[in-house]
Known about the structure:
Blueprint: H1 8-28, H2 35-48, E1 52-56, H3 59-69, E2 77-81, H4 86-94, E3 98-102, H5 113-119, E4 124-127, H6 139-148, E5 152-156, E6 164-165, E7 168-169, E8 176-180, E9 194-198, H7 201-210, H8 232-263, E10 269-270, E11 277-278, E12 284-287, H9 291-300, H10 330-338, E13 339-342, H11 350-361
Parallel strand pairs: 2-3, 2-4, 4-5, 5-8
Antiparallel strand pairs: 1-9, 6-7, 6-11, 8-9, 10-12, 12-13
Helix pairs in contact: 1-8, 2-8, 3-4, 8-11
Amino acid sequence: MIRAFDYRPELARHRSEIDAAIARVLDSGHLILGPESAAFEAEFAEYVGARHAIGVASGTDALILALRVCGIEPGDEVVTVANTSVPTASAIRAVGAIPRFADVDPRTWLMTAETMSAALTGRTRAVIPVHLYGNPVELSEIVPRAHDLGLRVISDCAHAHGARRRTQRIGPIADIGCFSFYPTKNLGAFGDAGMCVTHDDATAARLRTIKNYGMDAERVAQCDGINSRLDEIQAAILRVELRALDATNAARRDLAEQYRRGLAGSVYAVQEIEQGMEAVYHQFVIRCPDRDAVIDRFRRHEIGYGIHYSPPLHHMPAFRPFHAGRPPLPVAEQLAREVLSLPLYPGLRPDEVDEVLSVLLAG
């Protein structure tokens, strides 16, 4: 069987370091808000080139906290894309705001300044571009256009650990960058974890306060807050994995290039990467006009797959009312009918990629 995702090859590669990291935490006497979390925040901030990194309990919490710190209130509108995972919109709803959905570029499958602008209204207060599948959004037009309109930009970086726009890593280009360390991510914990990154001192201070019940250093609550803390064991594991991230991302790019070569000239379109962007291939996704038939072949040959994402968010019951009466999103809707994620993870062998391609192209 070829799995769609398997963390065990990388675990085996780093098992002794991970075991030692866990033991170090258990022997330290610090399980929450200790030295491992502080060290990981500093190391991750340096890695992405941010002035501050604030560890939280999950990627969803990172988005929720970012929205709160940006002053998003009930009834405000936040523009994001419909071809993303549910948590992006769930975070918007968690602060009482209204998600508004923008369409995406038909080549990159990402938000652009033009698709963002088409979704704006007089009640828009923020936008959340999504670096889908690890392919960086071109923020050089989105951020200044949003800022000119008084809007905040929160970057959903859940798929994009280590991705670059030219020499700059994804994350601190926006007002706040939000990362998930869910186990399937390029930098994955052994449970839930997340991070906010920012260059702004005041933003970072407020994130640190709100994530810990709104308390200051004297444990006096200064504002409403929540419990969203990165625990020491996950931080210690992530420190080990961060040291290997460039290598594992390079392995993903090699596998993706093998897929691209094998699919050249076929009916299966792939996501385009803009010039100057370095993608990290959280997923390798194709547009598959015969998706049901391919899935049937994969099942018969015990090949794992994923569908990221269908249906689009604006067609889901939880979010459909917020798109009522608004224009259709033809690109996102077509993608939802066609996208198929092929197996891709460090440890997947080239001969397994060849087998996936053989079964895929057999139709």
